[in-house]
C-alpha cells in the first residue's frame, strides 16, 4: 500500500496501453523544452559553482539557444568552462559562452579540414545564398553568423536565430524556410553553372520539412487537412504504418505535390 511509482520516457507513444490504465501510470506530466526565461534560470543553476566574469549576461545566452534542452544548457556551461581553462583564464567570460553555444549548436570547428581555393569560393557563395535569402524573405529568422569554417560535417554554416521563442508556424514560415535551405545550391548554380554535394544536409532538411507539412500538418495543396503520419517503421516501434493506408493515387500525389 501507498507505493508510488514514477517513470520518465521521451517515447510515450511506444508504451503498452495496459500501463496507462486507471490505477497504474494514470497521471502524466509533460515536460517541454524550456522557454527563454526558463533557459536563463537553468543556466543560473549550472554556473552557481563556476567563477564568472562581471560581464556575463545569461539572458543573452538564453536568447541564442531556442529549443535547447536543460541537458544541452548544462553542456554549454561546462564547455564554456573548458574554453576558459584552455586560455588560462581564472574566470569564464561571455566570449567563452558564445563559443560554447556555437559548438553545441553547430558542432566543433574542424580547423584541420582545409579547403582549396576553389572549394572556399564555392562554399562562400553557397553560404551567401543562404544568408541573402534569410535576410530578404519575410518569414525567415535573422542571420546571426555566416562562416566558411568547417563545423561537424558541414563545409560552412549560416546560422539564423529567432528574435523570440516561437511555438506556432504557418505555411509561409515553412515555405520561406525551405527556400532559404535551397538558397545555397541555387547560388552555386547561378554563379558556377553547376552544383556540388555541399547541399546534402540542406536537401534533407527541405525534403523532410516538406514531407512533414503534408503528412503531419495537413498543409499540402492537393492533400489538404489530412494527416498521414510516417511511413517508416512499424506500429510496434511506435511509428504508424501509414504506407498501407495510402492508395496508389495518393502515393503519386505525395511524389508530385507542389508543396
Write the layout of secondary structure elements.
Blueprint lengths: L35 H11 L11 H6 L6 H17 L7 H13 L10 H20 L6 E5 L9 E4 L10 H22 L7 H16 L32 H9 L3
Antiparallel strand pairs: 1-2
Helix pairs in contact: 1-3, 3-4, 5-6, 6-7
Please state how the strands of the largest beta sheet are arranged side by side: 1-2
Spell the H/E element sequence.
HHHHHEEHHH
Query: Which structural class do you get from the secondary structure elements?
Result: mainly alpha
Question: What is the mean pLDDT?
Answer: 84
- Give the fraction of residues assigned to helices: 40-55%
Q: What gross morphology would you assign?
A: flat
The proportion of residues in beta strands is under 5%
End-to-end gap: 56 Å
As a whole number of angstroms, the C-alpha radius of gyration is 22 Å
Strands, count: 2
Give start-end ranges of low-pLDDT stretches.
231-244
Compute the number of helices: 8
**Largest beta-sheet details:** 2 strands, antiparallel
Amino acid at each position: 500500500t501507498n507505493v508510488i511509482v514514477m517513470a520518465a520516457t521521451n517515447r510515450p507513444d511506444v508504451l503498452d496501453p495496459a500501463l496507462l490504465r486507471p490505477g497504474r501510470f494514470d497521471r502524466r506530466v509533460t515536460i517541454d523544452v524550456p522557454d527563454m526565461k526558463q533557459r536563463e534560470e537553468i543556466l543560473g543553476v549550472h554556473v552557481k559553482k563556476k567563477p564568472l566574469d562581471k560581464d556575463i549576461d545569461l539572458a543573452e545566452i538564453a536568447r541564442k539557444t531556442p529549443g535547447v534542452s536543460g541537458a544541452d544548457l548544462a553542456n554549454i556551461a561546462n564547455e564554456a568552462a573548458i574554453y576558459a581553462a584552455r586560455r588560462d583564464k581564472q574566470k569564464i567570460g561571455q566570449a567563452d559562452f558564445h563559443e560554447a553555444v556555437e559548438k553545441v549548436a553547430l558542432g566543433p570547428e574542424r580547423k584541420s579540414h582545409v579547403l582549396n581555393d576553389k572549394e572556399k569560393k564555392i562554399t562562400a557563395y553557397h553560404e551567401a545564398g543562404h544568408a541573402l535569402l534569410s535576410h530578404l524573405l519575410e518569414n525567415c529568422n535573422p542571420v546571426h553568423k555566416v562562416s566558411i569554417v568547417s563545423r561537424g560535417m558541414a563545409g560552412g554554416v549560416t546560422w539564423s536565430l529567432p528574435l523570440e521563442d516561437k511555438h506556432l508556424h504557418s505555411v509561409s514560415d515553412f515555405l520561406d524556410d525551405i527556400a532559404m535551405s535551397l538558397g545555397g545550391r541555387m547560388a552555386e548554380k547561378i554563379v558556377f553553372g553547376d552544383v556540388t554535394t555541399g547541399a546534402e544536409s540542406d536537401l534533407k532538411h527541405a525534403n523532410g520539412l516538406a514531407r512533414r507539412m503534408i503528412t503531419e500538418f495537413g498543409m499540402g495543396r492537393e492533400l489538404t487537412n489530412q494527416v498521414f503520419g510516417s511511413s517508416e517503421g512499424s506500429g510496434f516501434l511506435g511509428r504508424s504504418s501509414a504506407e498501407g493506408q495510402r492508395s496508389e493515387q495518393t502515393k503519386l500525389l505525395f511524389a508530385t505535390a507542389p508543396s
